[in-house]
Amino acid sequence: MSDYDRNEIEFTIKEKIGVIKPYPTGWNRELNLVSWNGNPVKYDIRDWDPEHEHMSRGITLRPDEMRKILRLLEDREV
User: Fold this and answer.
1) What CATH number does residue 22 fall under?
2) What contacts 52, CB < 8 A, 6 or more positions away?
3) Residues 47, 53, 57, CA angle at the centre, nearest 5°?
4) What angle do CA 9, 12, 17 make, to 5 degrees?
5) What digits encode the pLDDT tens for the residues 48-59?
6) What number of CA atoms fall less than 13 Å from residue 56's CA on the CB side?
7) Which of 13, 24, 56, 71 is the most exposed, having the fewest neighbouring CB atoms within 10 Å of its CB?
């Protein structure tokens, strides 16, 4: 097994929640529920190519973290 194989990240998009921002290149910034390396799903915000094979760096949030963000935003005028 090569170093590349050991470092490869496995992911499964369990639910596509929505596109935050489309780009003219066909990529989209999306909010999805993703399982990384077989772990429980997390909310995930990142840019994806149209086939969902390549991605940018992004941010993942546990459900409790997403709930906290939603509460913080409820108290603000966005």
Assistant:
1) 2.30.31.70
2) 13
3) 35
4) 125
5) 999 999 999 999
6) 13
7) 24
Residue 5, in any domain of the structure:
no
CA distance 43 to 15: 10
Structural domain of 17: 10-74
Q: Per residue in 1-52, pLDDT tens?
A: 444 456 788 999 999 999 999 999 999 999 999 999 999 999 999 999 999 9
Alpha-carbon distances of 39 from 1, 4, 11, 13, rounded to whole Å = 22, 20, 9, 12
Query: What single-letter amino acid sits at 19?
Result: V
The residue assigned the tokens 């390396």 is: 37
Tokens (6 digits) for 20? 């935050």
**pTM assigned to the model:** 0.84
Give the residue, 51 or 76, on which the prediction is more confident.
51
